[in-house]
Design a protein that fits this description.
Kinetochore protein Spc24, 2 strands, chromosome, nucleus, Ndc80_Spc24, mainly alpha, 2% strand, two-stranded antiparallel ribbon, cell cycle
Length: 202
C-alpha cells in the first residue's frame, strides 16, 4: 500500500496547527515536577515505614524479653517445690516451738517447786525441831510417870535401852526400863522432877 505524498504533507500540516511547543514544554515540566513530588513522597513514606519498623522491632524484642522467664526466677515446678518445703519447715518449726513451750512450762514448774523447797529449807530450824522433839519426849515421860512408871537412869544420866523384868515394889508402883525413851536423862529428869542419877528401888 503506497501513501500519497500530498496527503502526507497535508496531514503533517494539519497536525502542525495542533502542536504548541511551549504548551507541550510546560506540560512536560509539570509532569516531571509531579513525578519528582511523588518520588519524594514515596521516599519519605518509605523512610517513615523503615523507622516505624525499627521501633516495632525494638518493642517486639522488649516484649519478648519481658515475657521470657529470667534465670533468677524459678520455674513453676521449682516454685511449687519451694512452697512445699516452706510448709514442711513451718510445721517443723511449730512443733519445735510447742516442744520448747512444754519444756519451758516443765522447767518453770520445777523452778517453782525448787523455790518452795528452798523457802522451806530457809524456814526450817533443826534446833527448834529438836527442841520440839525433846518437849514431846518430856511429855511422854510425864505421862508415864503419872501412870506409875519410872524410867531407869544410868549413872551417866542416860535412860537404859534394854528391857528388864518388871518388879513389884512395896508401894505397888511398877518400875520399868523403856527402850523407846533413850534420851539424855538430865533434861528428862529435870522436867519430870527426878534426879539425873535416880534409880528404881530394888
Amino acid at each position: 500500500m503506497s501513501i500519497d505524498i500530498t496527503e502526507a504533507v497535508k496531514a503533517i500540516q494539519d497536525m502542525a496547527l495542533m502542536i504548541d511547543p511551549e504548551e507541550d514544554y510546560l506540560t512536560i515540566v509539570a509532569a516531571e515536577e509531579k513525578f519528582a513530588a511523588s518520588e519524594a513522597k514515596r521516599k519519605k513514606e518509605l523512610e517513615d515505614a523503615h523507622a516505624n519498623l525499627k521501633s516495632l522491632a525494638k518493642l517486639l524484642e522488649a516484649a519478648r524479653s519481658s515475657s521470657t522467664r529470667p534465670k533468677t526466677v524459678p520455674s513453676a515446678e521449682a516454685h511449687v517445690a519451694t512452697l512445699n518445703e516452706l510448709d514442711r519447715f513451718k510445721l517443723s518449726l511449730a512443733k519445735s516451738i510447742s516442744d520448747a513451750e512444754e519444756q519451758l512450762a516443765s522447767r518453770e514448774a520445777e523452778l517453782t517447786s525448787l523455790k518452795e523447797e528452798a523457802r522451806g529449807l530457809e524456814d526450817y530450824d533443826p534446833a527448834l525441831d529438836h527442841e520440839k522433839e525433846l518437849d514431846g519426849t518430856a511429855l511422854r515421860l510425864t505421862i508415864y510417870k503419872g501412870l506409875g512408871f519410872e524410867p531407869l537412869v544410868e549413872r551417866d544420866g542416860s535412860v537404859k535401852s534394854q528391857s528388864t523384868n518388871i518388879l513389884q515394889a512395896p508401894n505397888q508402883a511398877r518400875y520399868i526400863e523403856s527402850s523407846s525413851l533413850a534420851r539424855k536423862g538430865s533434861r528428862n529428869a529435870d522436867i519430870s522432877g527426878n534426879s539425873p542419877h535416880h534409880e528404881a528401888n530394888q
